[in-house]
Design a protein that fits this description.
Helix content: 10-25%
Shape: rod-shaped
Number of strands: 12
Number of helices: 6
Distance between the termini: 72 Å
CATH architecture of the largest domain: Beta Barrel
Length: 388
């Protein structure tokens, strides 16, 4: 029941994330680069099959008659938590990545079985750590990234089998245990969301949230179950499956990676060219991609425009906001409006009366540099200041 609930919950999260991603304007977040973060979650129960055989005639007879179970399932479950680090490459809307994680776990359970003659057998399993090295492939739409993932899994675990006599005091008759390192494979899926940096960031780094499901299989191990009590002879061999599933949430901090194109271009274009200085009755203020706040260079341009307006014969200032063609028409219209209002507020702070300023928003309808739809063009992310 817990496994079905966890799978249903994660599937719903993935579908919801994909649906919201399809409604978002494209191209507003770049997933490329290095990231690291933390995760925590739960390992829903999953059946690990344990098969036992006798290594001597009397022991084989005990298995055949049901005094020792020949096959039994053990459902281990518990909490996990740890960290991850990875790197993404984005090509268009496809995102390719590699990730490694390591978690401490408390996935354990002991299964007891009583025979008709009241013989008790106890099988225990405990997963102490779980790590993976995986590839990821996703399809990004705006700030949502649904993805699939798979690769190598490893971890430390222990298996134990204890068989008790039905005699007085039910003494321990046979015992075996094994602790070790296992490795195998893992596969799963998830969805990730990038929080807008103007809403929340960590030391200038973008922050993303994630929900993820993984299935892992660390292979099977056989342990010897040897006699320990008086009168016990022969022995048994028990083979344990070591597999499970994980449903977890995570928090990532994106940093490093290739520098965004917008920062490289804005540094070259944000200062007004010589022709603009020679014609001081109009000014251009440029913005970073998907941003409406002023850079220090842009603030200097607005301040120069305000000083020249106060010293000249200016009765009216027109402030018109624009956006490039990456994103929907409606989104870019709102973005250009915010940019124009930012410049208006800065002019007022620099001494221009608010009633002398008119504000307009043109969205992507009047590009300075004509481009195809979806192209990020730095010179089209601007506000024009014109004296009248």
């Amino acid at each position: 029941m817990q496994r079905r609930f966890a799978l249903t919950l994660l599937t719903a999260s993935l579908l919801a994330g994909t649906a919201q991603a399809q409604q978002s304007p494209p191209g507003t977040f770049n997933w490329s680069g290095l990231y690291g973060g933390l995760n925590a979650g739960f390992g829903p129960s999953i059946e690990n099959k344990i098969t036992t055989s006798g290594t001597a005639g009397i022991n084989a007879g005990n298995v055949a008659t049901g005094r020792v179970p020949g096959s039994i399932n053990n459902n281990k479950e518990g909490f996990i938590g740890g960290g991850q680090v990875g790197f993404n490459w984005q090509t268009g809307q496809f995102v390719y990545g590699a990730e490694a994680d390591f978690d401490y776990t408390d996935l354990n359970h002991t299964q007891n079985r009583f025979s008709p003659l009241n013989d008790r057998t106890a099988f225990g399993q405990h997963q102490y750590t779980l790590g993976t090295v995986r590839a990821r492939v996703g399809y990004a739409v705006d700030r949502w990234l649904p993805y699939v993932t798979g690769g190598w899994a490893y971890g430390r675990y222990s298996n134990s089998a204890n068989i008790y006599s039905n005699g007085p005091g039910t003494p321990l008759a046979f015992s075996g245990n094994q602790s070790g390192f296992g490795s195998g494979w893992t596969a799963g899926a998830g969805v990730e969301y990038a929080i807008p940096t103007e809403t929340f960031s960590a030391f200038g780094n973008a922050v993303t949230l994630r929900a993820e499901y993984l299935y892992y299989d660390l292979g099977s191990r056989t342990i010897g179950v040897s006699p320990v009590g008086a009168g016990a002879t022969g022995g048994y061999a028990s083979r344990f499956e070591n597999k499970g599933q994980v449903a977890r949430v995570g928090l990532n901090f994106k940093f490093g990676g290739p520098a965004p194109e917008v920062q490289q271009v804005v540094q070259r274009t944000v200062a007004p060219p010589a022709a603009r200085v020679e014609a001081p009755r109009s000014y251009l203020v440029f913005f970073d991609f998907d941003r409406s706040d002023l850079t220090p260079e842009a603030s200097n341009i607005v301040r120069t425009a305000a000083d020249n307006a106060k010293s000249g014969n200016v009765t009216r200032i027109e402030v018109t906001g624009h956006a490039d063609r990456s994103g929907s028409d409606q989104y870019n219209l709102r973005l250009s409006q915010r940019r124009a209002q930012t410049v208006q507020a800065e002019l007022v702070r620099d001494g221009i009366p608010a009633d002398q300023i008119s504000v307009q928003a043109k969205g992507e309808s009047q590009p300075l540099v004509p481009t195809a739809d979806g192209v990020r063009e730095p010179q089209n992310r601007r506000v024009e200041i014109v004296y009248r």
